[in-house]
């Protein structure tokens, strides 16, 4: 069997349709965010990063960096084992207590990433709750889809953000254990779920509510507890899932919920049990980041100001972007080849890095630049991005391609 021919054939097909992924070679420099070094043919150059999920710049916050450095010095590098076998350090337990407090829940459970937390929690719930049905929002993230698939539970898709459709489908399922999985802020469109209505529907049907707040934790709510905190709904959601890798600026994922729910996942989820725990220094840095963002609104306020400023400038230039009430600005291109070309020109000619978002991350025909302004983007950075986009819009005749 010539495996290379199989690999190359599929890679060539991806390239032909414009969906082959290439990654920028970047070096983040503490103290310089959002400027980074881009290693490229012929050397290096400074680029301004406009697509980072370190939304608040916490990855270079002095308290977070110090916590990580101090803990590496005191504990060494790795955890030394799974949580089950010697890797259950005090730093993990402190972080879980911090997370439970952040969401006003009895308990929390850490995973190595947000992806793993969704995959592990949903596959465990779906497979271990007898006769369970999982009702999944049609816009859910790949990590939820994979977890549901792996559970082998029956799955019912409901129309994105449509709580009436959810209600109808819950009725149709009848008297079985029901799990409703959805997100608060959707990563690619930046739209926000009608959480109150969804929660009410879940309560009316006795369903377990499962929300992914990956793009909202640290960002919304007076203490950074996400949209569920902002709306005063956290106590009515059965399970809140989040990441430590985006607004908190570190890495890792988690779930929070009742003590018995977290103990259930802890006891049965292979994605929790059979993998080495996060390094203690990562846990300590995440704890420092969460503690800071519980007290400080300054980063969230500055970030919101930057988002509003950029949106207003794009509007003035007539550059279309999806309207939403979040911090994510999707500038729609609607064609994979054009999307990559614009991204390349921005990088090569302007030193502006915005990764093109193509299929399968978004549906075909909705290719886009996903722009995430942060508190550390200056007025000059915004001026430069806007004039680059304005120039490209004029010269590349993009207006007609926009969705
Ligand atoms: N859920 C959503 C909605 C996401 O967008 C992502 C990652 N982009 C994840 C979960 C996975 O989180 P992590 O990056 O921490 O693995």
From TrEMBL:
Pathway: Porphyrin-containing compound metabolism; protoporphyrin-IX biosynthesis; 5-aminolevulinate from glycine: step 1/1. The keyword Acyltransferase applies. GO terms for biological process: protoporphyrinogen IX biosynthetic process. Its cofactor is pyridoxal 5'-phosphate. Keywords: Acyltransferase, Heme biosynthesis, Pyridoxal phosphate, Transferase. Gene3D superfamilies: Aspartate Aminotransferase, domain 1, Type I PLP-dependent aspartate aminotransferase-like (Major domain). The keyword Acyltransferase applies. Coiled coil: none annotated. InterPro entries: 4pyrrol_synth_NH2levulA_synth (IPR010961), Aminotrans_II_pyridoxalP_BS (IPR001917), Aminotransferase_I/II_large (IPR004839), AON_synthase_class-II (IPR050087), PyrdxlP-dep_Trfase (IPR015424), PyrdxlP-dep_Trfase_major (IPR015421), PyrdxlP-dep_Trfase_small (IPR015422). Its EC number is 2.3.1.37. Pfam families: Aminotran_1_2. Residues 46-389 form the Aminotransferase class I/classII large domain. PANTHER family: 2-AMINO-3-KETOBUTYRATE COENZYME A LIGASE, MITOCHONDRIAL, CLASS II AMINOTRANSFERASE/8-AMINO-7-OXONONANOATE SYNTHASE. Homodimer. Belongs to the class-II pyridoxal-phosphate-dependent aminotransferase family. This is 5-aminolevulinate synthase. It comes from Fertoeibacter niger.
């Amino acid at each position: 069997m010539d495996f290379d021919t199989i690999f190359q054939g599929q890679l060539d097909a991806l390239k032909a349709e414009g969906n082959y992924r290439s990654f920028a070679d970047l070096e983040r420099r503490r103290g310089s965010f959002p400027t980074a070094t881009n290693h490229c043919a012929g050397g290096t150059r400074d680029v301004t990063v406009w697509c980072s999920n370190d939304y608040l710049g916490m990855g270079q916050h002095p308290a977070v960096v110090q916590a990580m450095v101090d803990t590496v010095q005191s504990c060494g590098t790795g955890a030394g084992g799974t949580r089950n076998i010697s890797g259950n350090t005090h730093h993990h337990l402190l972080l879980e207590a911090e997370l439970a407090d952040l969401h006003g829940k009895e308990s929390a459970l850490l995973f190595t990433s947000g992806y793993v937390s969704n995959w592990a929690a949903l596959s465990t719930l779906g497979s271990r709750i007898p006769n369970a049905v999982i009702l999944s929002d049609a816009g859910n993230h790949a990590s939820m889809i994979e977890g549901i698939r792996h559970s082998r539970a029956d799955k019912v898709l409901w129309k994105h953000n449509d709580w009436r459709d959810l209600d109808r489908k819950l009725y149709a399922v009848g008297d079985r254990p029901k799990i409703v999985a959805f997100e608060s802020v959707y990563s690619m469109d930046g739209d926000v779920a009608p959480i109150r209505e969804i929660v009410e529907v879940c309560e009316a049907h006795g369903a377990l509510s499962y929300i992914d707040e990956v793009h909202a934790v640290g960002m919304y709510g007076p203490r950074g507890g996400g949209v569920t905190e902002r709306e005063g709904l956290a106590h009515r959601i059965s399970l809140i899932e989040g990441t430590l890798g985006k607004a908190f600026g570190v890495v890792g994922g988690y779930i929070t919920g009742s003590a018995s729910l977290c103990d259930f996942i802890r006891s049965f989820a292979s994605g929790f049990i059979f993998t080495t725990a996060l390094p203690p220094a990562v846990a300590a840095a995440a704890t420092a980041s969460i503690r800071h963002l519980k007290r400080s609104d300054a980063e969230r306020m500055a970030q919101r100001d930057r988002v509003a400023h950029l949106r207003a400038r794009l509007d003035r230039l007539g550059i279309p972007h999806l309207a939403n009430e979040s911090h994510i600005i999707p500038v729609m291109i609607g064609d994979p080849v054009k999307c990559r070309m614009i991204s390349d020109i921005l990088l090569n000619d302007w030193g502006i890095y915005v990764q093109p978002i193509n299929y399968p991350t978004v549906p075909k025909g909705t290719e886009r630049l996903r722009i995430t302004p942060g508190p550390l983007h200056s007025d000059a950075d915004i001026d430069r991005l806007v004039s680059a986009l304005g120039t490209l819009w004029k010269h590349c005749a993009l207006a007609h391609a926009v969705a």
